[in-house]
Amino acid sequence: MTLKPLRKMLSFMLLILIQASTVLNCYAFCSSTHPRILRTFSFCDNGRHGRSYCVNSDTPSAAEEVANADGTGEKAFNTKEISNIGRIFDPAVQKGSVNSGLLKKYPFETNVIISSSMKSTADLIAQIFVAGTPLDLIDWRRNFLFFVFGFVYNGFFRYFYAVKIFDRIFDVDKFTSQSWAQKLKDWPGIRAMCAQTALDQIFSVIVFLPTFYVLNSIIFSGSTEPLFWMRDGLSNCAENLAKDASDIVKIWVPVDLVIFSVPLYLRLHLTSFFGFMFAIYFSAVRGGH
């Protein structure tokens, strides 16, 4: 009886630590894995050029310098116009003066850490706030399951196909940098967006679900036989496949259509947000033994 308050306090402290770590890691990751979003200034309102440029918000006088460069920006900065958006990025920013540090040097490693901690936090939220589990009765093996699942699937596999494969197969930058009016006319871009969405659903069904159920068997079955883990996990996966696949398609098809159509810097935020929310839902539905 004397250990119960101490155990409850330690559980609460660990919960706060995990949540704080997740928030800080996500903030650092999102703020350092893409170029700084620079403030946009419009000039040449008389329509001679009809363009607007991004200049570094840390230098307030930069807008005036650009405007004085006859509307081109070429004399004020060594810059590059990107597509029809007319954005200008300082090359020093693109080369890493802003993105320097461990998060840029080790994107894969930081992604693994963030993915696993986010899945763990999502499960804690599902246990405490959805299921109403007291802090001293938290199922830490279940939480460890989601930590390992985030480590294996999101940290390794999803990073590999979403970052390494999709960017090579599809012309992501061209489509996502266009205005919505132009996107609706870009049929090759729309087909690529739909193809990415379809592939993501396929990977979710044939990799996401089996991985989760096999890991569940490894942690909860008590067996030390890999063949049993595979049989038990795949059997449970097949039993729940219709419901799980239906949930994935209903939720992720509309979400992916948005994610694969927005600029890359927004894709990171949207993927993290919806992935976190889905992890809470999936933990509440399938987090039991």
UniProtKB/TrEMBL annotation:
GO terms for cellular component: cytoplasm; membrane. The keyword Signal applies. It comes from the Eukaryota. The chain crosses the membrane at residues 144-161, 202-220, 264-284. Keywords: Membrane, Signal, Transmembrane, Transmembrane helix. Residues 1-28 form the signal peptide. Its main location: membrane. It is a multi-pass membrane protein. InterPro entries: Mpv17_PMP22 (IPR007248). It is found in: Membrane. Belongs to the peroxisomal membrane protein PXMP2/4 family. This is Uncharacterized protein. It comes from Leptocylindrus danicus.
